[in-house]
């Protein structure tokens, strides 16, 4: 009897096990694996009806791969209102003319004739007239420096010039009255006249800007103080430079080009340059720039570079003397697709642009870059004529793509 009862219990146990295995359909169902699949899957939970109460968990019919494929679209959604607020702008790509580019470095210099130097008219000790600082505006004839010769062994140069002038004048007038009567020779009178004229010129030159405090040195031109060549209390001799004044109306751009590009120098027509203090790109065509000359030999100071010089109007905030990055524009190339720098984004050394598919849809596109003229870049592949590309606000679209990639929430079984 016990044996029959034991066999009955075992039969019921096996029957219940089989029913459980076939009813839920969980054969080969790994919950750990499914958990990871759901965390990495971008589910559209608004469109998918997850009624867990009525869910019979028929996982043989639930294909997680199809859901993932449907959720991970290449399209980036950015509503027009948000795009406009973020400053996103796009343009249709059209082939155009693009110039071959030679990248190099160089310097911005003051043009000849637009710079002058105030020099010492007498020997003396320097004291500045008011507050003279580099960059300040000055007008022609404005006092810059006072040179004092008080308590010096040679005495006051203005006083000495006055005495010499008065003595030579008396001697000249005396001889002038006697030369007619042949009392003095014509030769002696001519020497006296020469001494008088020299003394007069010298005295008038130093007396013009003389005062009780000393001799004033004035600005020779209107412009800006470029540099102070002396400091307060320095002793200077006659003719020594004191203050450099620049008008900054015309500037030179000198590019130092490697010898290997010498054969291309005759094809150079213009240039763009980028300053280090504001990272702004200036185009010579917008500054009335023109090519002056290019060197016929490399520099003799140990550098194997050929100078190329341009002249342009200083319409912006360009500082003479600054070193700049230069993009020399050579022979033109027809039917080239190019995009501005603002259209590009970089990720781990690769460059991307964003194509606008429709009113609110965008797509990330890998591109291959060619020549770079500082303002725009040649596109070798990835974009074709007729594509609408985001030219401003590309990083805003990139941020929107990152936002779209974040799932609304994750669910686990």
Automatic annotation (TrEMBL):
SUPFAM superfamilies: HlyD-like secretion proteins. Residues 162-207 form the CzcB-like alpha-helical hairpin domain. Keywords: Transport. The keyword Transport applies. It holds the Pfam family RND-MFP_C. One of its GO terms (biological process) is copper ion export. InterPro entries: HH_CzcB-like, MdtA-like_C, MFP_Cation_Efflux, RND_pump_MFP. NCBIfam families: RND_mfp (TIGR01730). Belongs to the membrane fusion protein (MFP) (TC 8.A.1) family. GO terms for molecular function: transmembrane transporter activity. Residues 23-66 have a biased composition (Basic and acidic residues). This is Efflux RND transporter periplasmic adaptor subunit.
């Amino acid at each position: 009897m016990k044996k029959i009862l034991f066999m009955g219990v075992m039969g019921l146990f096996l029957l219940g096990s089989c029913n459980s295995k076939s009813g839920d359909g969980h054969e080969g169902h790994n919950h750990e694996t499914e958990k990871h699949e759901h965390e990495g899957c971008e589910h559209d939970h608004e469109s998918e009806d997850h009624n867990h109460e009525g869910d019979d968990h028929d996982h043989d019919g639930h294909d997680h791969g199809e859901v993932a494929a449907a959720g991970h679209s290449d399209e980036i959604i950015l509503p027009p209102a948000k795009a406009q607020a973020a400053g996103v702008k796009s343009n249709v790509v059209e082939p155009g003319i693009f110039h071959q580019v030679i990248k190099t470095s160089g310097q911005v210099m003051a043009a000849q004739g637009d710079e002058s130097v105030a020099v010492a008219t007498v020997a003396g000790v320097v004291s500045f007239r008011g507050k003279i600082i580099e960059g300040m505006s000055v007008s022609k004839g404005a006092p810059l420096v006072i040179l004092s010769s008080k308590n010096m062994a040679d005495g006051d140069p203005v006083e000495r010039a006055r005495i010499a002038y008065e003595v030579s004048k008396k001697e000249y007038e005396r001889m002038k009255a006697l030369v007619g009567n042949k009392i003095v020779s014509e030769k002696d009178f001519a020497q006296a006249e020469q001494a008088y004229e020299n003394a007069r010129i010298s005295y008038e030159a130093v007396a013009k800007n003389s005062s009780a405090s000393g001799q004033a040195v004035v600005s020779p031109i209107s412009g800006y103080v470029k540099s102070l060549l002396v400091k307060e209390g320095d002793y200077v001799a006659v003719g020594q430079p004191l203050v450099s004044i620049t008008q900054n109306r015309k500037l030179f751009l000198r590019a130092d080009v490697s010898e290997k590009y010498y054969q291309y120098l005759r094809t150079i027509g213009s240039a763009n340059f980028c300053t280090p203090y504001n990272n702004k790109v200036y185009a010579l065509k917008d500054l009335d720039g023109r090519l002056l000359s290019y060197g016929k030999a490399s520099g003799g100071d140990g550098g194997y570079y050929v100078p190329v010089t341009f002249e342009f109007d200083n319409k912006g905030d360009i500082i003479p003397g600054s070193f700049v990055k230069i993009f020399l524009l050579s022979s033109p190339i027809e039917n080239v697709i190019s995009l501005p720098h603002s259209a590009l984004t970089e990720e781990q050394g690769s460059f991307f642009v964003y194509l606008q598919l429709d009113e609110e849809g965008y797509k990330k596109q890998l591109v291959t870059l060619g020549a770079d003229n500082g303002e725009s870049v040649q596109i070798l592949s990835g974009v074709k004529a007729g594509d609408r590309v985001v030219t401003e606000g590309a990083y805003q679209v990139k941020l929107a793509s990152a936002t779209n990639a974040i799932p609304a929430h994750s669910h686990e079984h």
